[in-house]
Amino acid sequence: LILTHHGERHPLLTHPHPTLTAQGATQLFSAGSLIRSRYLTCPGSSPQTAFVPLQGLQRDYLDSQRVEVLAGPEQYTVASAWAFLQGLYPPVVGGEGKGKGKGGKEVEAPLGGYQYGRVETAGAADWNSVWIAGNERCPYHALSTAHQMNTTTYLNTTLASAPFYASTTPTLFRGLIPDPMVSYRHAAELYEYAAYAKLHNDTVATKLPTSSLKRLRALAAKRMWGVYGVRGTGAEAGEEDDHEWFGLMKPIAGRTFAERLVSGAVYGVLCHLRARRARCAV
What we know:
The protein has two domains: 3-137 and 254-281, no CATH class; 152-239, no CATH class. It is 46% helix and 8% strand. The protein has helices at residues 22-39, 75-88, 110-113, 129-132, 139-148, 152-173, 187-200, 202-207, 210-228, 244-249, 252-263; strands at residues 3-4, 67-71, 98-100, 106-108, 119-121, 269-273, 280-281. Strand 3 and strand 4 (106-108) form a beta hairpin.
């Protein structure tokens, strides 16, 4: 089982239907290559990983009966799954990478022996979607999210962060979205755009201080923890604990995913690539 994240996508603020970027594909390819080095091949001395071979998995040839890939329907999650597989099982020359064509002529698979695995997608209407997006269409999770926006922690953070967000509006967000939307409520989307622009936009890279980007990230993490994480005795000073019921509902996606793991045998590799809060579990 491997838990990871989809690669960089075009920001949701500017792309209603985000797609995976070249940087994002490279990230997932590198992740797949690292897993390959650790569990399938022996890289010798490596500062990144030790060799811990998995029994029952082919070293070089992708066996779709053993490697299960389940992704959400979004382009960037499916493309991330393919990029991960490319790193995990790169093209092969000869052997399984070749076959016989018309007249017995030897034919090599396209792209130098590219291996075509089996990637399954599970949209909202598919019952399998509960394993990879258990929070979607869950009325109780929606209720807990609405409740979170009325907590003292949320309201205090919204007020405290308002001047900071206002200071970033002229540099980053003006013209993209209405100024009132540049607030803690949209912290995750705002950070995603800022991180993308810092890397790909020379003007933003010059004008946006690294310290501001770090604060945008911290606020986004806090906002998402408020939606999906459980606040207990380890909550920050002045922040209330979650009621037991909300403590069960907020991490429902992780709970349903865990149910998938313990309720049946998981053969090989399960790549769980969720939308927006996407994670990848192999």
